[in-house]
Amino acid sequence: MPTFVQILDFIGTFAFAISGIRLASAKRFDWFGAYVVGFVTAIGGGTIRDVLLDVTPGWMTNPIYLICTGLALLWVICFSRSLIRLNNTFFIFDTIGLALFTVVGVGKSLALGYPFWVAIIMGGMTGAAGGVIRDVFINEIPLIFRKEIYAMACIAGGVVYWLCDAIHLESYACQMITGITVFLSRILAVKYHICLPTLKGGENAANAD
Amino acid sequence: MPTFVQILDFIGTFAFAISGIRLASAKRFDWFGAYVVGFVTAIGGGTIRDVLLDVTPGWMTNPIYLICTGLALLWVICFSRSLIRLNNTFFIFDTIGLALFTVVGVGKSLALGYPFWVAIIMGGMTGAAGGVIRDVFINEIPLIFRKEIYAMACIAGGVVYWLCDAIHLESYACQMITGITVFLSRILAVKYHICLPTLKGGENAANAD
Amino acid sequence: MPTFVQILDFIGTFAFAISGIRLASAKRFDWFGAYVVGFVTAIGGGTIRDVLLDVTPGWMTNPIYLICTGLALLWVICFSRSLIRLNNTFFIFDTIGLALFTVVGVGKSLALGYPFWVAIIMGGMTGAAGGVIRDVFINEIPLIFRKEIYAMACIAGGVVYWLCDAIHLESYACQMITGITVFLSRILAVKYHICLPTLKGGENAANAD
């Protein structure tokens, strides 16, 4: 069982690192900068989760995350021309990463004895916080706050995990169903342009505080 | 006693969440983004404090902070029109939140056995760090670094707590006087346009490093 | 031995605080904002390292870092005119700080029993993460991701530490050689305009995720 989760974790790491490296490259970062942004995109969410759960972050016990990010950087350096045509492929990869990270985040929190509402937040954080740090580093407003059903897909997955657990499904089944929920939520949201309403606070709000 | 501090904590959470949600709405964040920014504004300072003090952040042991932020979001969605007219009310709320968070931050650090100079910093961090994360998320230079006596009011409150403790006042009295100090410092600073001097480093400084 | 490391730590703190305060002053921060940015530049990297290593951050056990930053602020306030002419001096100071922080970061991680590849990352983080937080606070893309051999000098130093340790040099000698490596790497990189290649991801990458 842990091996299965680990394999998924590594695939997700690769996909997220690619996402960070590509956005860094669009901002003319050098190789080191791109590597760091890729690495932080991949492990940032899990690291914040582990700091909050007071356990040692996974990447400090296993160098595979560093290697994964290195391979992602190599990939982008070698195939930068063809990457643009692969946008759809990367979208799928990124969504797989999102699903896997959510499952890992919820599962780890539950294993540590936290209640479900904490685990759901930790799932969403594992999936989405890396992308927020990435966007802060490239000096953009985090994408997930404005445009897409992204973190909401993680939250939906977390709730489904909770329901599956409530009807006493095996943890393996819970994780499969959760992952599929996250994956499909995001794919369908993008395909049918489903998004959350925007707040209308007015221009004066900015002066309020 | 803990119940009294908890109640104050919840009022402060609501006020801070409103502040985050309003600024997010001015940037056209969706509901999810606004919720996250509101939540982080409310619990960000306390979370960094708790991570540094190596205790479990308060919001992970009690879902009231999530609920508070949800109510704040609902409030902004329902009453967005009238919010602009309420700027002064929110200024008062926000200042109450600042005072309460400072008291909670100083008190918690002292209870954990840290010296007073650490507790004063933790008080300021509890009050002001959430707003810094908020401003980073909406891609603005943090307001408190440039414009207002904000965090300085927390620091002043922390020093007053220290003085009250030094003359052996009851902890209840220390907390009341600290809260009032923070509240009045900020109100008076805004009313009389008191602000700290600005540094004049010159344009070449930006090339220095 | 600890006293030697501590003295170096304080010199590095002063240099890094100056760097933060000068950039803050270029953005018209007030004294408080400049102090906070200087402080975070100085202790930010070490604090993230200590949170990840699960030990209490150094500045919470010793007020010298706060005092150092206060002296740095006083210096900038008093000598702001002459600071521009001192750019080269500050470049040297900053590079000394970088070298010292790397040595402290690697040494502390090894002392806590972490493997070398973690220690190297922690060395780089101690040296460079404070500057990243500084740049996020002043709302700029972190400089180290784009322009200079900066964090790479820390990484080089960490690798040299590892090699020195592998041939069983005294820890004092390891630290001296590591520090000199970091210092010379950065000086030479700036003098001869050595920099890492930039990624060419194309404009469409920004739309990918």
TrEMBL record, chains A, B, C:
Please report the name of this protein according to its UniProt entry.
Answer: Glycine transporter domain-containing protein
Instruction: Specify the superkingdom.
Output: Bacteria
The entry assigns this protein to a family as follows:
Belongs to the UPF0126 family.
How is this protein situated with respect to the membrane?
A: Multi-pass membrane protein
The answer to whether keyword Amino-acid biosynthesis applies is no
- Transmembrane segments in this chain: where? 6-25, 32-52, 64-84, 91-110, 116-137
What are the record keywords, sorted? Answer: Cell membrane, Membrane, Transmembrane, Transmembrane helix
Glycine transporter domain segment(s): 7-80, 92-164
CC annotations in GO: plasma membrane
Organism the protein comes from: Bacteroides pyogenes JCM 6292
Q: Which InterPro entries match?
A: Gly_transporter
Spell out the subcellular localization from the entry.
Cell membrane
**Principal location class:** membrane
